[in-house]
Design brief:
- With 270 residues, the protein is α/β, with parallel strands linked by helices.
- The chain has ten helices and ten strands.
- Strands 3-4-5-6-7-8-9-10 form an eight-stranded parallel β-sheet. The protein has a two-stranded antiparallel ribbon with strand order 1-2.
- β4 (39-41), α2 and β5 (67-72) form a beta-alpha-beta unit.
- α1 (22-35) crosses α9 (231-238) and α2 packs across α3 (80-94).
- The longest helix is centred in the N-terminal third of the chain and has 15 residues, at 80-94.
- It is globular, with a radius of gyration of 18 Å.
- It starts with a strand and ends in a 16-residue tail after the last helix.
- 42% of the residues are buried.
- The chain binds adenosine-2'-5'-diphosphate.
């Protein structure tokens, strides 16, 4: 569990649903819940929220301690009105009264409206519709603007983060403001799994490369939302929580930072 700046907590290991086909979501979520995942990372843009809703309603006994994330996409329009409409659409698809986490998916700075969008999300939280509010893909300047304009610090910033893209400056900013760093594509879309240092540490520990990479995040207090559609990998990733890196192994992985994006660099999505 990681503590959030709004007083709530979040299981550090989440289940990512980006690029999971709607036809596979029910099986993936059912398997994930059985394994023990209690944090599911979705978004309206992923196009599978109705399937997620069906999966959740097959497991109603679990709903109390389950944290579900959704995100406001903001294309074609970043506006308060659009937030309210999209949020209701998401809640209808999920079949939930109250959401665990709602985020701004991208800041889209060229539209200059992320403060207005954030204000609308603050209001949803004040109305009791969402427990925790956060953002994704924001840089430190954009976070500063949100905080200065509204006085409300996001609880989470979800960004691409893994040993090849460690986001050190942004993580330091997050720490100053008690913002949780959450990693999307924590496995670098699978590319990290053939890194020689990762393979070496995995061999030392008798763990898998994916477990080593996820253990690196967890050792740094970074929450993760790896995606897999395969039951054995869902279990393998979840079990990374039991993998302990020693100081030397952590230092070796810390040495891999090279600024490599494996997904969209926020600089390219203005
Ligand atoms: P698959 O869904 O076929 O398992 P990321 O979360 O960093 O974006 O990485 C997701 C990619 O990594 C997907 O292609 C997924 O494929 C693959 N993947 C997820 N977990 C594992 C694992 N434990 N071992 C190998 N590949 C994995």
């Amino acid at each position: 569990m990681v503590q959030l700046n709004d007083g709530s907590s979040l299981p550090a290991m989440g289940l990512g649903l980006y690029k999971v086909d709607p036809g596979q979501v029910e099986q993936v979520v059912a398997t994930g819940l059985e394994i023990g995942y209690r944090h599911i990372d979705g978004a309206q843009f992923y196009g599978n929220e109705a399937a997620l809703g069906s999966a959740l309603h097959r497991a109603p006994a679990l709903s109390e301690d389950l944290v579900v994330t959704s995100k406001f996409w903001g294309d074609p329009e970043m506006s308060a009105e659009r937030v309210r409409a999209d949020f209701e659409a998401t809640m209808g698809d999920l079949g939930l009264e109250r959401l665990g986490i709602y985020m701004i998916h991208w800041p889209r700075p060229s539209q200059q409206r992320f403060v207005e969008v954030w204000q609308a999300i603050i209001e949803l939280q004040a109305a009791g519709r969402v427990r925790t509010i956060g953002v994704a893909n924001f840089n430190a300047d954009e976070l500063t603007e949100l905080i200065e304009q509204t006085g409300v610090v996001p609880a989470i910033n979800q960004v691409e983060c893994h040993p090849w893209l460690q986001q050190r400056e942004l993580r330091a900013f997050h720490e100053q403001h008690q913002i949780l760093t959450e990693a999307w594509s924590p496995l670098g879309r699978g590319r990290l799994l053939s890194d020689p240092v990762v393979l070496q540490v995995a061999a030392q520990l008798g763990a898998t490369p994916a477990q080593v990479v996820l253990a690196w995040h967890l050792a740094h207090g970074i929450s993760v939302v790896p995606k897999s559609t395969r039951p054995e990998r869902l279990a393998e990733n979840f079990a990374a929580q039991q993998v302990q890196l020693d100081e030397e192994q952590l230092a070796a992985l810390d040495g891999l930072d090279r600024g490599t994006h494996t997904g969209t660099d926020p600089k390219d999505r203005r």
